[in-house]
Design brief:
The complex is a heterodimer.
Chain A lengths: L2 H11 L4 E4 L6 H7 L5 E4 L3 H15 L3 E5 L3 H4 L2 H9 L4 E7 L15 H5 L5 E4 L6 H13 L5 E7 H5 L23 H13 L3 E5 L7 H11 L3 E3 L24 H9 L2 E5 L5 H4 L11 E6 L13 E4 L2 H11 L6 H13 L12 H12 L4 E4 L3 H9 L8 E2 L10 H11 L5 E6 H4 L6 H7 L3 E7 L4 H10 L16 H7 L3 E5 L5 H10 L4 E6 L26 H4 L2
Parallel strand pairs in A: 1-2, 1-3, 3-4, 4-6, 5-6, 7-8, 7-9, 9-10, 10-11, 12-13, 12-14, 14-15, 15-17, 16-17
Helix pairs in contact in A: 1-2, 1-7, 3-5, 3-17, 9-13, 10-13, 11-14, 15-16, 15-22
Chain B lengths: L1 E9 L4 H11 L4 E8 L5 E9 L2 H13 L3 E6 L4 E12 L3 H13 L3 E5 L3 E8 L1 H11 L4 E6 L3 E4 L14
Antiparallel strand pairs in B: 1-3, 1-4, 2-3, 5-7, 5-8, 5-9, 6-7
The structure holds thiamine diphosphate.
Thiamine diphosphate binds next to helix 16, helix 18 and helix 20 of chain A.
């Protein structure tokens, strides 16, 4: 067997059943071996989509996502997706071909310093120089990607390594003396956390993307204590969005209740989140009354990085939440809840009725029609925030978006990855007209696999989120954000790929169109022409604090229709 | 505040690039960086001097610890030995200066490693302050070249930087 066959065998031994990739010269031996392998390969039309699809595959399934690319241009097309997976702590293994070792460093055809270039965008990377190292390196890569704080790992295979005769063993031992993640939180710290909670009068529980696998434990902890829960954008679904204790997401476009609760809280228990600036706003003004911040994270480097932590707990969210739930007692929070209920009922996520169709009502209609049962992906922009606000996520791993990097174009490849990870389930991609056009070539991949993905393009004719900032902070100088005059007819575009396309302009037809989309078996693209100058609110201006929150669109009366 | 940090790493290709890259990317200022092998095959040891307050130091250590090939990180706040090697080439105008310079060098226990008509090269080891002071003492005579290795350090007594015992995950 050659190195390429060894690569596939080692992947099989890791339980890999699907690889997203695109071939090319230096990875051809592995593609040749793939021809005889039981592993399913999904041919994407651009490597960026491959790594995004692998990311969503991982997030939707809880397993490791795998993608593959050739050297140079192919590998470099992975860079954005790797950073996206890194920021959102997603286990992905990327395999790249490289020029044969004797050509490395010579500026050979399609050569790039992939290991150097991808170092900052991966949790770790490898270049295999000896064919017999293949099984060990692959085992280590999967181990690193999926344990501790999950993240992307890249393995680079020079072509000659793929071609060399493999004489090694598949029985490998992982030996990483410098890598020993801590899963069990320190018992004394957990005790201190419980003591602090017991004394809290205005506590909140914030949960992030690192708690997606800890949903049952988080629910138990929340229900036992009666504490209000604030899932971050990445944490949506880790606690049921329709649960009475859920205050909605915090941050720049978070709910009034969540942001005010954090602002007034005396104790914050944060599990599996990293206090991103989109969540905290200006850090010095974040949670000014919280004398005790308890931060639970598997990555010690996150603790104390941005906010001052009174009680650090290094450990796995699932394990620590279970311990906390075991030790926690019911808290008397009736006064606190009085205040919270008031904010919740006075300021739900809402929109003003308009003669035009609006993104929010389209999303709401899909939520109602699917009873929140779909796996939802999105691009990046206003539509992403609207989806986070108006599709209520009750189950973990049901909301897959780009939180940390904010990568436009992830919506469709994420949907493809999620659909392949969760066969039989409905996947909806709420996308923007701008975001969708960054990876629309993947309609071909969607068509080929006939996946049950419903693409809902909320077409406002603008790079809406940028337009909103220009509106609010740049005196309405709409520099280079207008798309409507050159957007394609999206439904026709879908038809060109052999996918059902529908255009919705009439508000009155919303519900019947939603039904039509959902009733159609297989992929559908719905273009919803929505109100073009919408804003996402509430909004805390960049660098502001909860007190600076703009609750309603100040332009509402002047913007007109 | 200046901190000397020792890092024990697996001696894989590219590991230094990873460390230097990580430190630079995270915006920490490195004053010096010295690397060399240890007595154990496959392990290298890096000495880093960084400046910043305790929070900076804590982040430097935590970020370094995230690297897979980093086995152990310590900052030397406890009693430790610290040394730097410097080669200093000084220009010499005349006999009188030559004698003066030699006297100063003796006081610092710097060794002469090269003598030419118009210049002398000294070799000096010591902590960074000593090297700084020597360089300043030589400055009036005319510094032609100064080459410093950066500090290396080791804790005094029994405390050692070693591979942690294997622990089941
Ligand atoms: C790759 C990339 N480029 C640029 C941006 C900056 N950006 C953030 S939101 C946005 C506009 C998104 O427009 P669209 O996808 O149409 O969504 P909308 O905001 O209109 O819902 C832009 C350009 C980004 N996030 N990602």
């Amino acid at each position: 067997m050659n190195g390429a066959a060894a690569i596939l065998k080692a992947l099989e031994m890791q339980g890999v059943d699907t690889i997203f990739g695109h071939p090319g010269g230096t990875i051809m031996p592995t593609y040749d071996a793939l021809y005889d392998s039981p592993i399913r390969h999904i041919l994407v039309r651009h490597e960026q989509a491959g790594v995004h699809a692998a990311t969503a595959y991982a997030r939707a399934s809880g397993r490791v996502g795998v993608c593959m690319a050739t050297s140079g241009p192919g590998a470099l097309n992975l860079v954005t997706g790797l950073q996206d997976a890194l920021m959102d702590s997603t286990p992905v293994v990327a395999l790249t071909g490289n020029v044969p070792q004797h050509l490395i460093g010579t500026d050979a055809f399609q050569e790039a310093d992939v290991v150097g270039i991808t170092q900052p965008v991966t949790k770790h990377n490898f270049q295999v120089r000896n064919v017999n190292d293949i099984p060990r390196v692959i085992a280590e890569a999967f181990y690193i990607a999926s344990t501790g704080r999950p993240g992307p790992v890249l393995i680079d295979f020079p072509k000659d390594v793929q071609q060399a005769e493999f004489t090694g063993s598949f029985e490998v031992e992982i030996d990483l003396p410098g890598y020993k993640p801590t899963y069990k939180g320190h018992p004394r710290q957990i005790e201190r956390a419980l003591e602090a909670l017991q004394k809290a009068e205005k506590p909140v529980l914030m949960v992030g993307g690192g708690a997606q696998h800890a949903a049952p434990e988080i629910l138990a902890l929340a229900e036992k204590t009666g504490i209000p829960v604030i899932p971050t954008l990445m944490g949506l679904g880790a606690f049921p969005g329709t649960h009475p204790q859920c205050l909605g997401m915090p941050g720049m476009h978070g709910s009034v209740a969540a942001n005010r609760a954090i602002h007034h809280a005396d104790t914050i228990l944060a599990i599996g989140l990293r206090f991103d600036d989109r969540v905290t706003g200006k850090v010095s003004r974040f949670a000014p009354h919280a004398h005790t911040i308890i931060h639970v994270d598997i990555d010690p480097a996150e603790i104390g990085k941005l906010v001052k932590t009174a009680i650090p707990v290094v450990g796995d969210a699932k394990w620590v939440a279970a311990e906390l739930a075991k030790g926690a007692k019911k808290l008397n929070l009736s006064k606190w809840w009085g205040q919270l209920e008031d904010w919740k009922t006075k300021h739900p996520f809402a929109w003003k009725p308009k003669p035009h169709l609006q993104s929010q009502e389209v999303i709401q209609a899909f939520w109602e029609a699917t009873q929140g049962k779909a796996v939802v992906t999105s691009g990046v922009g206003q539509h992403q925030m609207f989806a986070a606000q108006f599709y209520k996520f009750d189950k973990p791993r049901s909301w897959i978006n780009s939180g940390g990097l904010g990568t436009m174009g992830v919506g469709l490849p994420f949907a493809i990855g999620a659909a392949l990870a969760r066969p039989g389930e409905l996947v909806i991609d709420f996308d923007g007209d701008g975001s969708f056009q960054m990876t629309l070539q993947e309609l071909a991949t969607l068509k080929k696999h006939d996946l049950n993905v419903k693409i809902v393009i909320l077409n406002n004719g603008f790079l809406g989120m940028v337009r909103q900032w220009q509106d609010l902070f740049h005196a309405k100088r709409y520099s280079e954000v207008y798309l409507a005059d050159s957007n394609p007819d999206f439904a026709k575009l879908a038809e060109a790929y052999g996918i059902k396309g529908i255009t919705l302009t009439d508000k009155a037809k919303l519900h019947e169109t939603v039904k039509e989309v959902l009733a159609h078996p297989g992929p559908v693209l719905l273009e919803a022409r929505v109100y073009h100058e919408e804003g996402v609110f509430p909004m805390i201006p960049s660098g502001g604090a909860a007190e600076d929150m703009i609750i309603e669109n100040p332009r509402e009366t002047v913007a007109g229709d | 505040m200046r901190h000397l940090v020792s890092v024990l790493v697996q001696d894989n290709p590219g590991v230094l690039q990873r460390i230097a890259g990580l430190i630079a990317r995270r915006g920490f200022n490195i004053e010096s960086l010295a690397v060399g092998r240890t007595h154990q095959p496959g392990l290298s040891r890096i000495s880093l001097v960084v400046s910043g307050d305790d929070a900076v130091l804590e982040q430097v250590e935590k970020q370094l610890n995230r690297l897979i090939e980093v086995i152990k990180v310590t900052d030397h706040s406890e009693p430790h030995v610290e040394r730097e090697l410097a080669l200093v080439k000084v220009s010499i105008a005349g006999m009188e200066e030559r004698l003066e310079v030699k006297d100063i060098a003796e006081a610092f226990r710097a060794r002469i490693v090269d003598v030419a008509k118009k210049s002398i090269i000294f070799e000096l080891t010591g902590d960074s302050t000593k090297v700084n002071n020597f360089v300043e003492a030589m400055r009036p005579y005319g510094l032609l070249e100064v080459m410093r290795t950066g500090a290396v350090g080791m804790s005094r007594g029994e405390q050692v930087l070693k591979v942690r015992e294997k622990k089941a995950v």
